[in-house]
Amino acid sequence: MMNRLLITGAAGGLGVEMRKRLAPLAKTLRLSDIVDLGTAGANEELVICDLGNRAAVADLVQGCDGIVHFGGVSTEQPWDPIANANIQGVFNLYEAARLHGKPRILFASSNHATGFYRQDHRIDNTVYPRPDGLYGVSKVFGEAMAHMYHDKFGIETAIVRIGSSFPEPWDYRSLASWLSYSDFQTLITRIFEVPELGCPIIYGASANATTWWDNSNTAWLGWSPKDSSEQFRAKIEATVEKPADDEAVSVWQGGVFTTIHKE
Q1: pTM for this prediction
Q2: CATH code, domain carrying 222
């Protein structure tokens, strides 16, 4: 058990869910976001923090044994908000980690770092990034920052290219990209359990029948997802119109993100 685990972006969808699920990993959860986080639980510390504020992030990281970094812009947006949270914010986080004990980090990357690979192209964690927008570019930057701080300073990071982590998939594309909350919970637990982590890239998806991602290079981690999106296939086929084969959501792993541009 860690003494203190920091979860950034704790007011977001994944942050809210993992706030409940990750409590057993540490004596204290330090939860951070730029918005109200409600009432602190018995083992919780709540901190309002803008990731773009370097001094505030340094204070946030101090005293933490581990970090689950969900914080930042999580959708395609104009450059300025992405740059503040996902570029400056990631630098601030890693500098703070370097100065305050070098805690192990889970960096929530995204499938949008490789969104311009085709869905008929199965990829592993050695492929060159092909981001599908500014958000994806920011995740590639974060991955590069994680590798540099590992190679130069020894900070261990699990880079998780999250697919679609929601209660259930909602369309045909997400049948392949879905990551159940339970599978994500067990992945995070393994990341903080293993004696040596290094800086691996892991694709965050459940054991779905349709898959684009190969995690065989990180099998040593000992994570085996248990859930599958197949339980939702009949519901989607009955309620969701199947897109044409030449639509972006059918062609590219990043789906509609490949068509969105916000200046």
Answers
A1: 0.97
A2: 3.40.50.720
